[in-house]
Amino acid sequence: MNLVYNIKDKPKFGQVILFALQQLLAIMAATIAVPSIVGNGMSQTAALFGAGVGTLVYLFFTKFRSPVFLGSSFAFLGSMFAAFAGAYSSVELGYVGLVLGALFAGLVYVIIAIVVKFVGVKWIDKIMPAVVIGPTVAIIGLSLAGNAIGDLTGGAVSASPYVCIVCGLVTLAVTMLCSVFGKKMLKMIPFVIGIVAGYVVASLFTVIGNLAGIPELVVIDFSKFQSITWVPDFTFLKFGDGFKKLFELFAEKPEVGQLNKGVAYILSIAVAYAPVAFVVFAEHIADHKNLSSIIGTDLTKDPGLHRTLLGDGIGSFAGALFGGCPNTTYGESIGCVAISGNASVVTILATAILAIIISFVGPFATFLATIPGCVMGGVCIALYGFIAVSGLKMIQKVDLNNNRNLFVVSVILIAGVGGLSVSFGNVTLTEVACALILGILTNLILGGMKKDAQ
Fold this sequence. Notes:
By secondary structure, the chain is mainly alpha-helical. It has helices at residues 13-38, 44-61, 77-85, 95-119, 122-127, 130-142, 145-154, 161-181, 185-188, 190-212, 242-251, 261-295, 300-323, 331-340, 345-358, 362-370, 373-393, 403-417, 431-445; strands at 70-72, 327-329, 422-424, 427-429.
């Protein structure tokens, strides 16, 4: 696509701040949602700080050539619950388990990166050509459609779905108008303008609802400003005597025929996290193939898949050390690059720094947390839609009159849209992973590796 700013371009300082704020708004809701879902005292601001740190690590390993932000990964939710509750062992060490789990997940990425470094990436192009990766990228966007509509119709304190829809559609309308008809900067920051417009409308509804005593009009929870925290509650500060207890477990003599309790605990965490990392690996490839098609540079070759994997894996661990949440590349960030036409890595760097700074600025972090889900739902309709469309663009040159290709695309789309997922204990193959695996198998079965299929 035609980019306004390419990877190495450096917008003016004021523009960079606005662009970074737009990226931050795009990834904010999902990043702070993960610690909210897990609970157990996890901090939203610490997760935001961790996301910023993880992104800085990712940029360093990718030589500042890959313009995408890393945020809290939803794929590890089950693993995080298991780490807290001691799902695979009778031991509960809380936050120690979270960080150890992120370490195992990162280790999986490091091992795969080493293999890729020596084996190369040609195998990816062979088993995942455009006919496979295109519809898979589309599924990433389509699989999030339910989240966007759910937020649009219900992301409020107590407001009716109709009020939520009005707020969300105002946000979407302003975003679209700025993107299509806006001049210069308005065209570059449609999300910022759209979210501000939606927030203003939601605020008006909320004020009227509170004054008139009509809860069906209350969209925003302004009470959050009464409990502002200025310093993130970092995960590593919550270890307490967790590691001491773990060492005590290692020191205990096991019963005959039983594993040492410390070893059993470590293995239980590895079982909870490592398999999920292999699932996220598939989404990692799809995300980077998608971003590559947008910026016109194959990121699996420059800076290289081994570097993106190292950045993602080690960045994920670094983020979890501060916020408890393993990180992953965000489709929302990629969608933001596509819509704004801004692929400048400087913007992503500024976003990471801004996320770290804002986590210490209580009022502003609280303001971001009060942006209602219905407003973000309006934005996400465009974000997720662009991800889906960018995937479909990849198969524009694929011959769909060929039944082999038609079957591959059909299997991926129906499996993904239908929500096919498979669980093995605490490990869940998401609809994206299942669709990709089925697509690869279908392509191989029908002779997709042959020259005539290429």
